[in-house]
Design a protein that fits this description.
Blueprint lengths: L4 E5 L1 E5 L19 H15 L6 E4 L2 E4 L11 E3 L5 E3 L7 H14 L4 E5 L4 H7 L4 E3 L4 H14 L3 E3 L4 H6 L7 E2 L8 H10 L10
Length: 206
């Protein structure tokens, strides 16, 4: 009878960057770009096995990011599920594109909260290394819940900054938004600012 909690996980089963191709060194590790989706599937499995009496929905947008005749091209303008438009200025910033529609769909479920999980972006590893999980939210109650859960499970999390300046950096020239920042730095914060545009107003989100 309660509103659902929705978990959204990025499911990029392989990411070579598309036309904005990645360097070849280490590209074999791009099969792990579905880590967020795997985490959501694992969460749903754990909830089911523990028979928890909770109303949850798991969403995993999944694809590969390759080149081909139908590949997204730099300069393309796409329209998201909620009607917002975004221009593709780097095809390697693809995870946020599939997550945007999933977040719109999650919003339509009128949830009590949305948590999305993704290997988004490498800038987070530069900031925090491989010890802490960085997360973004503007909702203080959800922030406290995440940190309490992390304490109980032994995870290390770090609340990263997200503000209107990051949103401003994601404004597009030919569309509402750009899929990459107009400035340098804060690559993960600007990615979060992009995703925030697809979460319904008033819904706690991290």
């Amino acid at each position: 009878t309660k509103k659902p909690s929705v978990f959204v996980g990025k499911g990029l089963t392989f990411d070579w960057g598309g036309i904005s191709i990645k360097p070849s060194a280490g590209m074999e590790e791009m099969k792990y770009d579905m880590g967020g989706g795997a985490a959501v599937i694992g969460t749903m499995l754990a909830i089911a096995k523990l028979k928890l009496k909770v109303n949850v929905i798991g969403l995993v947008p999944a694809t590969e990011n390759l080149a081909g005749p139908s590949a997204t091209k730099p300069g393309d303008v796409h329209t998201a599920r909620n009607g917002k438009t975004f221009e593709i200025n780097n095809t390697d910033a693809e995870g946020r594109l599939i997550l945007s529609d999933a977040l719109c769909y999650a919003t339509e479920q009128e949830p009590q909260m949305i948590v999305d999980v993704a290997t988004l972006t490498g800038a987070m590893v530069i900031a925090l290394g491989n010890t802490h999980t960085g997360y973004f939210t503007r909702n203080k109650e959800l922030k406290n819940k995440i940190e309490d859960a992390a304490d109980q499970s032994g995870e290390w999390v770090w609340n990263m900054p997200l503000c209107d300046f990051h949103v401003k950096d994601m404004k597009g020239t030919y569309a509402d938004l750009s899929n990459i920042s107009s400035g340098k730095g804060a690559g993960s914060a600007t990615a979060a600012a992009f995703l925030e545009q697809f979460v319904g107003e008033g819904i706690p989100w991290a």
